[in-house]
Automatic annotation (TrEMBL):
Residues of the full protein shown: 63 to 182 of 182
Name the UniProt record assigns to this protein: Uncharacterized protein
Domain of life the protein comes from: Eukaryota
Amino acid sequence: ATADNGAPTIFDKIIAKEIPANIVYEDEKVLAFRDINPQAPVHVLVIPKVRDGLTELGKAEERHKDILGELMYAAKIVAEKEGIADGFRVVINSGPAGCQSVYHLHLHVLGGRQMKWPPG
Ligand code: 5GP
């Protein structure tokens, strides 16, 4: 029971295991699973299991600082598990102009190929 300020998303169903996902890492607070539309050989999404109003990074509040750290550290664990810890990218799309489509904050962990910069 949380005071989320947005509508439920598809990620709630993944957390509840109501729809399948290819889970690569899970702990008490975070879940990491393969993106359904991968943009690189490794493309994993890292999400908080409880959204607690954290729909997008641009709406983060002080109380979210701990979970934001948990997510970042989980991204590193995922990179290690996937064998890309020597070179990878972490992306957060925030808001419409940031191309966010699912309003449950998530980190994209991308790797397994040479990444380009700037991303466009
Ligand atoms: P955003 O555009 O919000 O940063 O990223 C949302 C990501 O979620 C997209 O890369 C999209 O492919 C992924 N996605 C959307 N629906 C599903 C789903 O049902 N399962 C999985 N595994 N990924 C999804």
